[in-house]
UniProtKB/TrEMBL annotation:
Residues 1-64 form the HTH dtxR-type domain. The lineage of its organism: Bacteria, Bacillati, Bacillota, Clostridia, Eubacteriales. PANTHER family: IRON (METAL) DEPENDENT REPRESSOR, DTXR FAMILY, IRON-DEPENDENT TRANSCRIPTIONAL REGULATOR. Belongs to the DtxR/MntR family. This is Metal-dependent transcriptional regulator. One of its GO terms (molecular function) is DNA binding. Keywords: DNA-binding, Transcription, Transcription regulation.
């Protein structure tokens, strides 16, 4: 399933924040992505309407099964591509920024082959 890059970024951010904090609220996303409150509110509502997340009565955000699958796919790509770029000599900051751009556009086939190559050469790599 292909969704917009911005939606993928939100889902990935929610996954990362969930790992770090345990509970995620819209304000956490505002701070993490440095977006405005209205922008985050609109995006979160759209993601909810499209079945990618739920919001409990206290404002806690949870990824649905579909949202989690997308977030995990993007997060894996981000981590592996960042690791690979750093190994090539790119600074951590630039590698993470470039990986964020690449993770959305690379095909499944290319990513699978790249992942296989990287993990073969490293004996592991950025696995889940």
């Amino acid at each position: 399933m292909k969704i917009q890059e911005s939606a993928e970024n939100y889902l990935e951010a929610i996954l990362v924040l969930k790992r770090e904090k345990g509970m995620v609220r819209s304000i956490d996303i505002v701070h993490h992505l440095a977006y405005s409150k209205p922008s985050v509110s609109r995006a979160v509502n759209l993601l909810k309407e499209n079945g990618y997340l739920t919001i409990d009565g206290e404002g806690g955000i949870e990824l649905t099964e579909t949202g989690l699958a997308i977030a995990q796919r993007i997060d894996e790509r981000h981590r592996l591509l960042t690791e690979w770029l750093v190994r090539l000599g790119v600074t951590q900051e630039i590698a993470a920024r470039d990986a964020c751009r690449m993770e959305h556009d690379i095909s499944e086939e290319t990513f699978r082959c790249l992942k296989s190559h990287i993990t073969r050469r490293s004996g592991g790599g950025a696995e889940n």
